[in-house]
């Protein structure tokens, strides 16, 4: 059965994580779209943690100034890596 967690911070950013099994993890990331290169910064987090991004989808809501990014990734190792990724995403 998939495991789902959600974390938010004071800047109205949120990260939803669903662990599917066999190392496949789905990340739903919502953040303010007021900074340039936000999507690139988010994807660099996955690169730093040596995860394999299998797919990524980006949408921007200009009226609400919000960026939504969905990432499907293969995360090796244990659950600590997922928690580190989640914390780092919230601190961007």
Walk me through this protein's architecture:
It is a single chain. The protein is α+β, with helices and mostly antiparallel strands and 92 residues long. 25% of the residues lie in helices and 46% in strands. It has two helices and five strands; from the N terminus they run E-E-E-H-E-E-H. Strands 1-2-3-5-4 form a five-stranded antiparallel β-sheet, covered by helices on one side. The longest helix has 12 residues. The radius of gyration is 13 Å and the shape is elongated. The mean pLDDT is 86.
What topology emerges from the helices and strands here?
Elements: E1 3-8, E2 14-21, E3 24-32, H1 38-48, E4 52-61, E5 66-74, H2 79-90
Antiparallel strand pairs: 1-2, 2-3, 3-5, 4-5
Offer a concise description of the structure.
The chain is an alpha+beta fold and 92 residues long.
Q: Please tell me what the overall shape is.
A: elongated
Strand order of the largest sheet: 1-2-3-5-4
Strand content: over 45%
- How many helices? The count is 2
Helix content: 25-40%
Give the C-alpha Rg. Answer: 13 Å
Number of strands: 5
Feature tags:
92 residues; 25% helix; alpha+beta; elongated
């Amino acid at each position: 059965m998939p495991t789902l967690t959600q974390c938010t911070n004071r800047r109205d950013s949120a990260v939803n994580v669903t662990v599917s099994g066999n190392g496949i993890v789905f990340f739903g990331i919502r953040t303010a779209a007021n900074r340039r290169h936000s999507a690139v910064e988010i994807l660099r987090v996955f690169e730093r943690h040596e995860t394999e991004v299998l797919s990524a989808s980006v949408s921007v809501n200009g009226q609400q100034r919000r960026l939504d990014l969905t990432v499907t990734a293969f995360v090796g190792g244990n659950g600590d890596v997922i928690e580190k990724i989640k914390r780092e995403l919230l601190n961007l």
